[in-house]
Amino acid sequence: MSSGRHQSAPRHADSGQGELKRIVLVGNPNVGKSVVFAHLTGAYVTVSNYPGTTVELAQGRARFDRERLVIDTPGVNSLVPRSEDERIARDILVEDGDRLIVQVADAKNLRRALVLSSQLAEMEVPFMLDLNMWDEAKNQGIRVDTERLAQLLGVPVIRTVAIRRQGLRELERAIGDASKSTFKVRYDPDIEEAAAKIEALLPPLPISRRSVALM
Ligand SMILES: Nc1nc2c(ncn2[C@@H]2O[C@H](COP(=O)(O)OP(=O)(O)O)[C@@H](O)[C@H]2O)c(=O)[nH]1
Ligand SMILES: [Mg+2]
């Protein structure tokens, strides 16, 4: 990890919710994460700064499963961080403990979204993909074969129009099926060889050692 300071979990900022299982929303900026978050949590939401930063994080209990805490993270373009926001999103994913990840994506910008999907796959964290803004994609004539995409990624892929509450029930159902992706990026042999050497030196981590070695 490039992060020098190792921050404690945001869950500690909100005492009493410490040991809840987490649902972490991640995605590019402006894809509808906060709208999805509002639907999943309803009214009782706390907003606190991520420890040691001014970055605000919203968290609240899931309405469909009170044992789960939903966390809305800052929008990112990469999980190999280049900004404080990206570092925080990455750190939340890297934290130990029981968590399922919901990647919210703009269905019109699939290429951008799949960069993150491939990074989540590399980290070997359980996730599912929500293709949001399906209305706008449709209006622009963009079609996505979600079944094929789900096959290729090996994780659930669903469609939503969050502002109109379309697909949110399906989203809630699919969260329980979030899984580690079977998709694997193969790099040039030199990179693979170097990564394997680094990987062998790393201790057990909450995300795959391969992904940390590649970072
Ligand atoms: N057309 C359309 N707009 C949406 C949808 N979901 C969210 N939005 C809008 O997209 C903008 C960004 O949403 P927001 O939740 O703030 O995105 P975030 O940056 O990922 O948290 C807002 O203006 C939302 O009202 C959707 O499914 N369809
Ligand atoms: Mg937001």
Describe this structure in words.
Helices cover 35% and strands 18% of the residues. The N and C termini lie close together (8 Å). The protein has 215 residues and is α/β, with parallel strands linked by helices. A hairpin with a 6-residue loop joins β2 and β3. Strands 2-3-4-1-5-6-7 form a seven-stranded mixed β-sheet, with helices on both faces. It contains eight helices and seven strands. It is globular. The chain folds into two domains: 10-184, P-loop containing nucleotide triphosphate hydrolases (Rossmann fold, 3-Layer(aba) Sandwich), CATH 3.40.50; 186-215, no CATH class. It binds guanosine-5'-diphosphate and magnesium ion. Residues 33-34 line the site of magnesium ion.
At the fold tier of CATH, the topology name of the largest domain is Rossmann fold
Q: How would a textbook summarize the main sheet? A: 7 strands, mixed
CATH architecture of the largest domain: 3-Layer(aba) Sandwich
The ligands found in this model are:
guanosine-5'-diphosphate, magnesium ion
Assembly context of the chains: single chain
Number of domains: 2
Mean pLDDT, rounded to whole units? 89
How helical, in percent, are the residues? Answer: 25-40%
Give the SSE order as H and E letters. Answer: EHEEEHEHEHHEHHH
